[in-house]
Amino acid sequence: MSDEIVLRIRGLSKSFGPVKALTDVDFDLRREEIHALVGENGAGKSTLMNIIDGIIRPDSGEILIDGRPVTLSSPSQAQALGIGFVHQEIALCPDISVAENMMMAATALNPALFMDYRAIRLKAEAAMGQLTPIPVGAIVGSLPISQQQLVEIGKALTLDCRILILDEPTASLSERETVALFAIMQRLKRQGISIIYISHRMAEIFGNCDRVTVLRDGRYVGTEDVASTTPDRLVARMVGRELGALFPPKMAGPPGPDVLTVNGLSGDRFTDVSFRVRRGEILGMAGLVGAGRSEIVKAACGLYPRSAGAVSLLGEDFPVGSYHDAVDKGVVYLSENRKREGVFLDLSIAANISALDVGRVATRFGLLDRRKEDSIASELARRVRLKVARLSNPVSTLSGGNQQKVAIAKMLSISPRLIFLDEPTRGVDVGAKSEIHRILRGLAEDGVGIVAISSEFPELIGLCDRVVVVHEGRIAGEVAGDALTEENLIRLASGIAGPARQAA
Amino acid sequence: MALDSAAFDASPPARRGRNVRSLREAGLIAIIVVIFVAMTFASPYFLTWANMRAMLLSFAIDGIVVVGMTILLIVGGIDLSVGSVVCLSMAVAGYLFLAGFNPWIASLLGIGAAALVGVCIAFCVTVVGLTYFIASLAFMVIARGASMVITQGTPLSLYSLPESFKFVGQGVVGGVPFVILIFVFVAIVFDVLMRRAVAFRRIFYTGSNEQAAAYSGISVSKVKFAVTVLCSTMAGLAGVIYMARFGAATPTFGVGMELNIIAAAVIGGASLEGGVGSVLGAVLGIGLLSTVSSSLILLNVSVYWQDMIRGFILLGAVTIDYLLNRSRA
């Protein structure tokens, strides 16, 4: 790694309306270095990268490449300046071959009239030859996601980039593939390419990167040489924030008997998962994106296949054939994907709430009893403190927070025994967030088992009594009481061995 | 220095894409051959020049429309108005001819009218943001209505068309009807363009993943606009050829044609989702449907069965397509 600075950012700021995504951020990228960029969700990493890639423009600040100031007004322009970006989501054409996908940008700019398939194949093979032996004639849609990710990286390489940005590239790669990817990155580095590597995974950062920059709440915290810092120090710098939001008081007395017990649950994306939810407590589930939390929870209630393991509800065996059975037994799942899987946007609030158990609002002849629907709906809306003018309004007119409350009210309509919530307050404003937390605490006190998957550490720490942490499909550990801190959660979620202290 | 391949999962055999598509085309050829063989035994009239010519004629002109529709399907669009547009171009050309225009100029203007419909649909889709389905459905009705207005509801008799013009639709060159030559020419030209021309490859990219294509610097709306106009223009071309063939412009011509065209394109391998398809497939698709139609006639099957049978063929083809593609990553 030389000292020559390839990319320099000074005083970059960007706001989206009232939200300040970036404030006065500095960043240096040296030639031939692998530079990690860390920060929690919302720290500003994506915004910064989108600005470098020309997708959005900063409000103020300057960007210098090789010492010369540049204005990045479009992705094509960024490409022309030698910046290659491998997004986290795959942007490839599934019906087209690997070679054509890789050369697509070049083909688009190509003034030639006819396709030179041979040249495309050769160039693609040259680029992929540096990475991995994927046949360039293969159709992208037939490759597994991990290989598609590699094709994306290969695509960036064909653009002759000098600065390569990788956004969580190992999210869908196995450990072996990750190791191989890092060997590739080392080779690219020796060839003169500078790499910005965005990740949460401490092991990867400390094993492979030269320097690391921390962003927090849209601000630049600092840059250090990886060799002279430790994961703990890094995590401390990522976190360093007060838990501002007020949470309802936690569980008072000791927890009651088990509401749900999961033993040795195994499936496609998870192995040997065991945990329990006790009466009166709120169990949190932490982990990185892609760790498998949603899959575990979905498997426990029949929405996702499982290959082994036993689940019992209130002492009884809970064999679930389908989610329908789970609902019958009183177990419900609230999806993280509210707009697509949580609510029916075009239907009225009342219809949404009764959707889970339409039978209850039917008359003897199977017709819809509107009055009954309305009375049940208003009762439940009251319970979740939903303030709306009319229950006949379509759900699409509500704010995110209120939509979430409707989804919760729907869950309540069948008097559940256990609710799995996947990111219960994502996209919800602060006020509604607080109310939803109170609702959940109230339900827990009434004896309803609550399991909350969340990626927001303040929420996990403030709301939950106990948090089980998932890492790559396995339970990495459990924290509660005094040990329930952000540092411990991040450590376990990132795969660093054991938290500092762990309460029983 | 390539990386150790053991580090990565072995890539599974390609379950979709080029392999499957050539499988599809081979499959269609095989089915057509089977029908040919069966029919040769079933009817003495089947394997005769007269019958072969009649079969080719029956789908040659529609085939031009299928080529355009296939390309539009590949980009992810669809056009329900082609039947009406065929009629519109015929009506415009016929009307102008009767008003004194040179028949070739009249035809050009007829095709121009068809292209104009294409421009309108393309505008609705790429600028206004309507779906192809809705926009083309609306123009299906509008174009039909326009034909009615132009012809005042009655067929225009064009018996005074000069022989040179009528040759286009009725002439024979070396034993082969001219119409078939036009179709073969169009099919070959577009097949080559779709496989080999850079501008046409963008149609595949846009249809497969519009977002990815846009990231690569392709102007997605320009591509869609051009292809939409192309499809309508092909329909227009077919319309004036029909006019030359029949020597008349009938306002009710082509009603329901779009379904046949779309069915043929889909049987030929084009997907309603976009990104896949080929002109060769389109030709085989409509070839198969026509072979089946002709065979049914030779077998003295009541003509009322034709639609049902065609529908089942379409259902079968689409189901096979779906099952094969279920493994798409």
Chart the SSEs and their pairings:
The complex is a heterodimer of chains A (504) and B (329).
Chain A: E1 5-16, E2 19-30, E3 34-38, H1 45-52, E4 60-65, E5 68-70, H2 75-80, E6 83-86, H3 98-102, H4 104-109, H5 117-131, H6 145-158, E7 163-167, H7 175-190, E8 194-198, H8 202-208, E9 211-216, E10 219-225, H9 231-239, E11 258-267, E12 270-278, E13 282-287, H10 293-300, E14 308-313, E15 316-317, H11 323-329, E16 331-334, H12 338-342, H13 349-354, H14 370-383, H15 400-412, E17 418-422, H16 430-445, E18 449-453, H17 457-463, E19 466-471, E20 474-480, H18 486-494
Parallel strand pairs in A: 3-8, 3-9, 6-7, 7-8, 13-18, 13-19, 16-17, 17-18
Antiparallel strand pairs in A: 1-2, 1-4, 4-5, 9-10, 11-12, 11-14, 14-15, 19-20
Chain B: H1 18-42, H2 49-74, H3 82-98, H4 103-128, H5 132-151, E1 156-157, H6 163-170, E2 172-173, E3 176-177, H7 178-196, H8 198-208, H9 210-215, H10 220-246, E4 248-249, H11 257-267, H12 279-298, H13 305-325
Antiparallel strand pairs in B: 1-4, 2-3
Helix pairs in contact in B: 1-12, 2-7, 2-8, 2-10, 2-11, 2-12, 3-4, 3-5, 3-10, 4-5, 4-10, 6-10, 7-8, 11-12, 11-13
Molecular structure report:
Chain A has 504 residues and is α/β, with parallel strands linked by helices. Chain A has helices spanning 45-52, 75-80, 98-102, 104-109, 117-131, 145-158, 175-190, 202-208, 231-239, 293-300, 323-329, 338-342, 349-354, 370-383, 400-412, 430-445, 457-463, 486-494; strands at 5-16, 19-30, 34-38, 60-65, 68-70, 83-86, 163-167, 194-198, 211-216, 219-225, 258-267, 270-278, 282-287, 308-313, 316-317, 331-334, 418-422, 449-453, 466-471, 474-480. Chain B is mainly α. Chain B has 13 helices and four strands. Chain B has a two-stranded antiparallel ribbon with strand order 1-4. In chain B, strands 2-3 form a two-stranded antiparallel ribbon. In chain B, a hairpin with a 2-residue loop joins strand 2 and strand 3. In chain B, helix 1 packs parallel to helix 12 (279-298) and helix 2 packs antiparallel against helix 10 (220-246). The longest helix of chain B has 27 residues, at 220-246. Chains A and B meet through helix 4, helix 6 and helix 7 of A and helix 8 and helix 9 of B.
